Amino acid sequence: MTEPVSDEELREIERRAGAATPGPWYVRFLDDDAAANLVGVSVVPDTGRGERWPTWDDSEMVAATLVQFPRPYVAGPDDRWDENAAFIAHARSDVPRLLAEIRRLRALLEGAHRDDGRSS
Fold this sequence. Notes:
Blueprint: H1 7-19, E1 26-30, E2 36-42, E3 61-68, E4 72-74, H2 81-118
Antiparallel strand pairs: 1-2, 2-3, 3-4
Helix pairs in contact: 1-2
């Protein structure tokens, strides 16, 4: 069984999330002569057009999970670049939401414990 997440750990997770580039984040499927088949995470939604450099703005990119030319040099250990990009992109909104839910549930539990103590 895993140890409960401490309040300090929650604050650290929240600090990291707060320090990251603001969201939402999106998966982008891009292309260019120097990085063919680029799969990345961006602050701008994918257009479905597989833009080629320089028609996309690199300042919109947060991360890349696949960059290859002439061979894959950012690809991950198991070719799950689309899945990894989706996970990273969704983490930007999922992590703050999960933190809020943990805090909400802890407050409910704390309230229930206080109520139990009053009825004794």
